[in-house]
């Protein structure tokens, strides 16, 4: 089972790194946050269109390692069309997944595609890579002012 999950992890990470979903800039975004990991150089800009508490559209742009880019790609795919509360719940689930004890059993039945990041918790240096897009999302949501572009630095 573990080797199957490792193989799935590798395939999903490589696919989302090579073909990132929602990559680009949203010129009409009403929320924007910048994320940067100075330890490894990963950086990204996250653009959101939030209307009536729903993430109508989302894109990211930037550069980073395969894990960071794949995490941003999967995250943007999952949050598009979700409410702010649903996106915050996904953030909490993801954060719990990657920061939990590597030896702990985790119920992954409701994680969907996020399950592939289960292995990241075994590599503390990679946790920051995987979670950078998610922390940037939290900033964008928390700083959102539905009428103007918000830019925050990490």
Provide structural commentary.
- This protein is an alpha+beta fold.
- The protein has a single domain, classed as Sufe protein. Chain: A (Alpha-Beta Complex).
- Helix content is 43%, strand content 16%.
- It has a 3-stranded antiparallel beta sheet with strand order 1-2-3, covered by helices on one side.
- Helix 1 crosses helix 2, helix 2 packs parallel to helix 4 and helix 3 runs antiparallel to helix 4.
- The longest helix is centred in the C-terminal third of the chain and has 19 residues.
- The termini are far apart.
Could you give the topology of this structure?
Elements: H1 2-18, E1 31-36, E2 43-51, E3 54-63, H2 66-79, H3 84-99, H4 124-142
Antiparallel strand pairs: 1-2, 2-3
Helix pairs in contact: 1-2, 2-4, 3-4
Which blocks of ≥5 consecutive residues have pLDDT under 50? 145-154
Domains (count): 1
Using the 3D structure, state the CATH architecture.
Alpha-Beta Complex
- Helix-strand pattern: HEEEHHH
Query: Structural class of the helix and strand makeup?
Result: alpha+beta
Largest sheet: 3 strands, antiparallel
Rg from alpha-carbon coordinates: 15 Å
How many E strands? 3
Q: Shape from CA axes?
A: globular
Contiguous helical run count = 4
């Amino acid at each position: 089972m573990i080797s199957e999950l490792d193989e799935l992890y590798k395939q999903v990470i490589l696919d989302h790194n090579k073909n990132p979903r929602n990559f680009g800039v949203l010129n009409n975004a009403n929320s924007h946050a910048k994320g940067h990991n100075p330890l490894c150089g990963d950086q990204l800009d996250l653009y959101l269109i939030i209307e009536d508490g729903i993430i109508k559209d989302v894109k990211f742009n930037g550069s980073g390692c395969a894990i960071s880019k794949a995490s941003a790609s999967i995250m943007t795919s999952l949050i598009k069309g979700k409410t702010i509360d649903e996106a915050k719940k996904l953030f909490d689930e993801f954060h719990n997944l990657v920061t939990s004890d590597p030896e702990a059993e985790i119920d992954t039945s409701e994680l969907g595609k996020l399950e592939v990041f289960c292995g990241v918790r075994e590599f503390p240096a990679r946790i920051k890579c995987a979670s950078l897009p998610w922390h940037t999302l939290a900033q964008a949501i928390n700083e959102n002012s539905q009428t103007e572009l918000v830019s925050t630095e990490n």
